[in-house]
Amino acid sequence: MIVVPKAEGRGLASRPSRRRPSSRSLRAYLYILPAAIVYIGFSLWPALNTVYYSLLRWDGLNAGVWIGADNYVNVFTDPKLLGSVLHSCVLIVFFAFIPITIGLLLTGLLMGKGTKGMTAFRVIYFLPQVVPLVAVGVTWRWIFSDEGIINTVLRAIGLGALAQPWLAEPSTALIAIGVVGSWCMTGLCMMLFISGAQKIDSSLLEAAAMDGAGPMRRFMAVVLPGLRGEISIAAVLTTIAALASFDLIYVTTGGGPQDATTVPGLLVFRLAFSYNQVGQAAALAIVLTVLILIFVTVIRRLTREKA
Q: 230 with 86: CB under 8 angstroms?
């Protein structure tokens, strides 16, 4: 009697069969087709066109002239264009570093406190994220004016010599814009950190306290590592806000005085719609995009949890 090995039959049966996409799979693709069309039409295609326009000398109306990478060379050789990129890098300190630091400090001070009044406190600090930046810019433009609150207080306490039109001086305008950015972003960072701190296991804090760790030590050893993800998100959001800033500066200083607060977002708008240099505006926009991607990649790598 000859016995046929069963393993051979199982081996043949276990081979994955190459099937054509079923009707169910095709229906799934049809469901995402509208979103894909919108994404391609309003995101991917304009991005590819921007890259193409950046290689042209084009005024937006007449036929463009191919000039290759000349527009990109101008970005790094023209003092005005390169200065706008450096201004955005300076704003990262005010939009990202300072708000994250203050947000962590407030989180450490509020941890372990009761919930009484916490809702009102969060609303007050998060309010700048709700108010449109145009309204914020108009308000702070009045605060920094020669007759604004800051100069009035300085004169009242005998420091009138320090009073000045803060947004009208090249030496103080960018710092004044940065102060507004810090005010806007601190509430967002604090909200992210407080939400992240609430998910930390309280037993870890109790164990650290039993080992004799003080409040600062508990915060540095337990809370801060637990907020790694929230810090990463806050750093990415605030850095993008600094590099892509436009409306706040457009309302407050318009890029002045003497181009002291000019940023790439504002220059892209002016080059394209005021000076009819669409190719140069596209090149600056591409450089800004690459710069944002570099910063975001570095932030994500620095805040990534190690295995």
A: no
List residues bridging with 231 in a β-sheet: none
What does the alpha-carbon distance between residue 281 and residue 265 come to, in Å, rounded to a whole number?
Answer: 9
**Residue 149 has which token pair?**
């609150």
Q: Which helix (H) or strand (E) holds 171?
A: none
**Lowest mean pLDDT: which of 85-89, 191-195, 280-284?**
191-195
For residue range 58-88, list pLDDT tens digits in order.
988 888 899 989 999 999 999 999 999 999 9
Cis peptide before 257 (omega within 30 of 0): yes
Cα 271 to Cα 279: distance, rounded to the nearest angstrom: 9
Distance, CA of 250 to CA of 256 (rounded, Å)? 9
Alpha-carbon gap, residue 101 to 19, rounded angstroms? 56
Residue 56's SS3 state is strand
Helices (H), the chain: 6-13, 23-39, 45-53, 70-77, 79-92, 98-110, 118-130, 133-143, 149-156, 173-197, 202-210, 215-218, 224-226, 228-243, 247-252, 264-273, 278-302
Backbone angles phi, psi at 246, to 5 degrees: -150, -60
Average predicted confidence (pLDDT) for the chain? 86
User: Whole-model pTM?
Assistant: 0.83
CATH for 77-302 is: 1.10.3720.10
Please report how the helices 98-110 and 228-243 are oriented relative to each other, as an axis angle in degrees rounded to 10: 150
